[in-house]
Structure formats: C-alpha cells, structure tokens
Amino acid sequence: MSKTLGNVIDPIDTIKEFGTDALRFTLALGTAVSASCALGWFLTDSNGSLTTNFALLFQDLNLSTERLTSNKAFTNKLWNAGKFVLQNLPSQSDISAWETILACKVCVFAHF
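== valine--tRNA ligase ==
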C-alpha cells in the first residue's frame, strides 16, 4: 500500500463502516497469529538466523472487507451474549455486573 498510489485503507472510514471492535479484533487476530508462529519458530529453531526469524513478526496483514465483516459479526455475537447474560441475572437492578463487563471489554480491547 502506498499513499501516493491511493490504495491505502483509511481507518476512520473502516471504523465507520465496520465498527471499532471489528477492526481491533481483526488487527489483533492477524498480529497474534503471525507473532505466535514467528516467536515459536524463533524459540525452537536455534540454527536459523535472528534476522530471518524476527522478520516474520513484521509481515504485512491481509486486511479484507470479508474478514472485517465476519469479525464484526463475531464481536456482535459476543456483545449480544454478554447482554443476554446480564438480562437474565437474578437481580435485574444490579448495575455493577454491567459495569464489570464493560470494564473487562475496555481492558481486553485496550491491549490490542
């Protein structure tokens, strides 16, 4: 991708279309898979060069609208499951559980 060629994905437009959670989840999922594979290979392969193994951590991500759409659906399912659990708690007036789930969501997505 290049700004001069005009084929850059604008994160603001992506967030407006798919949502922040879907974009964060997509980026975190793509980064985690690459990083875990590269780090595992680096730790197990003592004969390989550091440059070759470490370079796998910085591979480009294949960001597509299909992947963003499926991850948006997945994050919506997670969010709806959390709301369903909260609505079916014995005490409907207990707001602290909802605040706890929101805090967990913020903590989880803040690391991505």
